[in-house]
Amino acid sequence: MEPVYLHGMDWECPLEELAPHVRFIRGINWDATDLGPPRQWSPTLTLMVDLCLADPQAASVMWGDRLTMIYNESFVQFAGSKHPNLMGGTPVVEYAEVWDSMFAAIIKRGKENGQATRHKDVQLFLRRHGYLEEVFVTYTFVPIIGPDKSVVGFYHTAIETTSQVLAARRTQTLLEIGNQASSAESIEEYWINILAAFEPNPIDAPFVVAYEFSETIEDGSSQNSFGSGRRSSSTASAPQSCCIVGAIRRAIAQLPTTFDVLDNYQTFRQQVKVATTTGKVLLLDRADGSFPDWLYEEVSEDTEKTCTRAVIVPIRPSPHEEDETYRAIGFMIIGLNPHRDYDTDYERYIGLWTRQMGTSAASIVLMDQEVRRRRQLAVQLSLSAESQRQTENRFSKFAEMADVAMYVSRQVWNLTRKD
After folding, report:
1. In DSSP terms, which residues pair with 159 in a beta bridge?
2. What residues make up the domain containing 360?
3. Residue 380 falls within a domain, yes or no?
4. Does the structure show a pLDDT above 90 at 371?
5. Rounded to the nearest 5°, which phi and psi values hold at 159?
6. Residues 178 and 128 in one domain
7. For a disulfide at 197, which of 156, 180, 322, 413, Cβ 3.0-4.6 Å?
8. What is the rounded CA–CA span in Å between residue 226 and residue 31?
9. Are residue 29 and residue 83 in the same domain, yes or no?
């Protein structure tokens, strides 16, 4: 028999005829809670529970002095791992990580003067999926007035807006990257401006460190690889060493100033080599040993607030990711928000940031190449003019010392046909 979705709780209907969530509520030992057996519940509580179950939003009823909770099926997803203990429990215990700092005052104010509360897009840090998670919620707390006009409980709704808020915040960083990079006129300005773009977003980018590649050329000297653009030949040396060009929210004095990327003896350097060769973003995680110790920095005694994961972002000035003819000019190490999982959305935005930085670098590479080309052309023209001047000087000296008369003439021949 198909489950029946009744209008409100039916404590007498056979369980097999009820919807799963209603069966779950029926299965709670309410006698052991502050609410007592359901047959003794007040008409007000029964009415509010019926309203809660009919509400399409995530909603709950918090009843009595301990705010004993009953919630609908939509609230289950919001509660996460707090379900099922939250049913018949108290939020004072189950939401201890935020209760005193966020909600105790709201409840006190509501009990004292019956004042309802609605807050939009509030940032909370909830433990509902095994870690302290950054969550944004639009919530309401509406006091429930009993027959004696006292507050007997609260009707609570919670609409999660995390996806929207995170998307707006990360999109703003994408815009900052574009705005900052577009004003750069040199490689030095590029790195400075790119780092500045991450300054306003310390949550999604707890720290950023930038390294620039150099390459060894045939004469043994070293040059910056920024302006090299396309590989001139198959024998051109790949970038093999790098040096730090800047960092935010990390002290440069505590970071390696330079290292050899071709050193295969350390996991981090192998990761850098793979990322810059393939053009792919790679994850560094302290749990698997790929997150280097020199990047780790405890921000407080609460280790859950400490960043333990980051990504290596190669900066490749290529118009297309699959274009292998462009080499990376450097890479960035971007710390990841310790209060968010590195999920598909987070990864997608990191990819957008990467492409934006690569596109911006490409324009500066082209500009740098054009400047180099003009300088080379100017040098060639100067050398050509100097060579011509020297030739004329030698000819003049030769003519002065010669025993015969010499002159240079420009003859114009006029050929006419005779009949």
Report:
1. 138
2. 165-371
3. no
4. no
5. -105, 115
6. no
7. 180
8. 73
9. yes
- Which amino acid belongs to residue 189? E
Burial classification of residue 392, based on how many CB atoms lie within 10 Å of its CB (0-12 exposed, 13-18 middle, 19 or more buried)? exposed
Q: Which long-range contacts (CB under 8 A, 24 or more apart) does 225-233 make?
A: 225/327, 225/329, 226/187, 226/329, 226/364, 226/365, 226/368, 227/187, 227/365, 227/368, 227/369, 227/372, 228/327, 229/317, 229/326, 229/365, 229/366, 229/369, 230/325, 230/326, 231/325, 231/327
Same domain, 352 and 285: yes
With beta carbons less than 8 A apart as the criterion, state whether 245 and 252 touch.
no
* Residues 90 and 192 placed together within one structural domain of the fold: no
pLDDT in tens, 126-169: 999 999 999 999 999 999 999 999 999 999 999 999 999 999 99
* pTM confidence score: 0.80
**Is 349 domain-assigned?**
yes
